[in-house]
Amino acid sequence: MASKVSLAAAKVASNKAALQRVTSDLIASPIAYFARTSHFDPSARVHAGLRFQSTYAKASTNLTAPKMTTSWLSALFGGGNSKSKAHRPFGRHEEAHLRLATRKTNKILKANPGARVEPKFLSEEDAQMLVEEAMDIINIYGMSHVSEEQRDVLANQLKHFPLPKEDLRALVNMQRVTGRFEDEAQKLAPWGYGDDFQVDQVPPALRKVLESIQDSPHFCVGKPRDITINRREKSFYRLDPHIDPAKDGGNVFILSLLSGTVMTLTPTSRTMHPDQHKAMDTRKVAEVSWLPGKDIDVDLPVLSLLHLSGDARYTWCHGIRPGVTQSQISDFNLGGVMSDEMEGVDQEAVRTLEGLPLWDWWGSMKNLRRRGPERVSIICAFADPE
Fold it and tell me: Which parts pass through the membrane (predicted)?
């Protein structure tokens, strides 16, 4: 009889009995076991089954085979202290945080291109120290990532916001620190970039994040190649869809601090590439996304970590929609859901720069996420393991 212990449960189980029950099923028919589980993405299922079959076959003549099998299984699912040799399979965190962006319905994702979410990746204490360190770094090395020309263009695209023109210009903002060269006027971060990345130049709180990712049994990464810090204020989180430079490496991690948001993955093709994403009507994007029904919304609460690898890293763009205003939500006519989200909103303040509330929506406009006034994101990039 097939074991009722799921792969997700086995991953977190520390007792040998639970692992042994799963082991019995795997020994009987490893490829079939992995093929029927939803916790592995399709490309990894057969590989995992074959890997188990091969490992057990080599040990089957040894009296310690069951013990060895349990040890191998524990390592495969991230148990113990063994460093992972593969990214963890997709599981309950992705089921809870990823949705198709359809605006009106709430559809669970069926195919994951390579996005993993780790909620509460940091403790509150570590996050506070990291924010303080990031602010100090921004004060020294930070630069505006928005030119005056871009500010005018972006402000002009936000005419539907209930603000005067000058306030719209002031709304557009983003400060940035990176070791990657991007502009003649920038101050490069001391840790460098790519092959020249220097871990010993990374301040302690940031270095702890790097080490936590490298030591995690959930990820399999090589050397760090970049750290970028982005800071946004006034709830202006807009991020046009883009693919990070290939030289960053095969693994991109995005850590959310101070406020959560909804990151959207949108596919690229011959008919929809990054430049066309940017040319789309801003209000329409805010309300329906770039490619409704194909885009993937990732709910990223504060302290959560998003990992992009495979197609999600190289062939899908990632971005953040401009955000929706109270009037846009009202136009959608959400009834009771809207009234719950609007509770506590100062009706007099919404027409001021500091009081303008902006919301993200996740999967559909029925799932609103109010933005905080400020967000810091830490982007760490790693090579694939050698």
Answer: none
